[in-house]
Amino acid sequence: MTAVTASAIRVEGLEKSFGEVPVLRGVDVEVARGSIFALLGANGAGKTTLVRILSTLLAPDAGTARVHRFDVVREAGDVRESISLTGQFAAVDDVLTGRENLVLVARLRHLKDPGAIADGLLARFALTDAGGRKAATYSGGMRRRLDIAMSLIGDPPIIFLDEPTTGLDPQARLDVWQTVKALAGAGTTVLLTTQYLDEAEQLADRIAILHDGRIIQNGTLEELRRLLPPAEVEYVEKQPSLEDVFLALVGKDIR
């Protein structure tokens, strides 16, 4: 099996500038099928630009990128049929109920029995009880789960999640993390961009650190940890974290 067919995403020498400002300066990335790949970087590092190129929303200046074996420039239509993109803000229609949002997307994709598709996704994302309520009444975590559910209609093999937990409270973040893990467990390839180190640590099979338009490190969590000297072992009494306190007080811990 060649590297191209074994990989869900393969990027070589990708460059992109906006005017005189270079954003991507020769990015090389390879994402294995069925894995969670985290692209970690600060604001302005180029994460969203890379995702926009991979999802055919933006053309690169140089280099090549293949998604599900298709070239993002020459075979953009095939790429779009193979992916789904969830941006930083939920693309949910607040006027519609959760179920109506899902039915609408299924109809737009010309799928058979959109009602059954909607009901299945509501159950999969623990939204059945809220399916008849308007999306405007949903919490942040519920809206994000509905947004991801909408993006999965049509069973795309690859999904891009661009900073999916931005603006969410701690409990909602954990809900989304569980959803992402379940996606990969079902065989979906997930490329996740984030600026949160704990998010990459909790979710990713591999992590690439994007800085100043370049991938400066790429590996598993253990491989990245080995870049630093071993820590000195000391006895330290562990105190509860703020997250531990928060989850204890609100009475829910899905971990």
UniProtKB/TrEMBL annotation:
<dbReference type="InterPro" id="IPR017871">
    <property type="entry name" value="ABC_transporter-like_CS"/>
</dbReference>
<dbReference type="GO" id="GO:0005524">
    <property type="term" value="F:ATP binding"/>
</dbReference>
<keyword id="KW-0067">ATP-binding</keyword>
<keyword id="KW-0547">Nucleotide-binding</keyword>
<dbReference type="GO" id="GO:0046677">
    <property type="term" value="P:response to antibiotic"/>
</dbReference>
<keyword id="KW-0813">Transport</keyword>
<dbReference type="InterPro" id="IPR050763">
    <property type="entry name" value="ABC_transporter_ATP-binding"/>
</dbReference>
<protein>
    <submittedName>
        <fullName>ABC transporter related</fullName>
    </submittedName>
</protein>
<dbReference type="InterPro" id="IPR003593">
    <property type="entry name" value="AAA+_ATPase"/>
</dbReference>
<feature type="domain" description="ABC transporter">
    <location>
        <begin position="9"/>
        <end position="237"/>
    </location>
</feature>
<dbReference type="Pfam" id="PF00005">
    <property type="entry name" value="ABC_tran"/>
</dbReference>
<dbReference type="GO" id="GO:0005886">
    <property type="term" value="C:plasma membrane"/>
</dbReference>
<keyword id="KW-0046">Antibiotic resistance</keyword>
<dbReference type="InterPro" id="IPR003439">
    <property type="entry name" value="ABC_transporter-like_ATP-bd"/>
</dbReference>
<comment type="similarity">
    <text>Belongs to the ABC transporter superfamily.</text>
</comment>
<dbReference type="InterPro" id="IPR027417">
    <property type="entry name" value="P-loop_NTPase"/>
</dbReference>
<dbReference type="GO" id="GO:0016887">
    <property type="term" value="F:ATP hydrolysis activity"/>
</dbReference>
